[in-house]
Here is the input.
Amino acid sequence: CQWLNRDFRVLNLIISEDTARKRLNKRREIEGRKDDAPEILEKRLENFYKDTVPSLEYLRSIGKVIDIDGEPLPDEVSKEVWEKISNL
Here is the structure.
């Protein structure tokens, strides 16, 4: 699978729905983003499962997905991201 004639990988940050809700609620409080409202988040999650998950499954089947645990604190997740992409 090539994109623009270049090899690629997809980083998939895995977090629970509960963590996603908590983080986006906190971001909404800080930044005031309307697209982080609970009803919009639910629609975004629905779209993720409907549209994104099938694509991830296909890309994973051909070895293009790098899964990363997104549950730890952001600094720890960033460190793991850099470690994973440094090994490409």
About this structure: The chain has three helices and two strands. Residues 38-61 form the longest helix (24 residues).
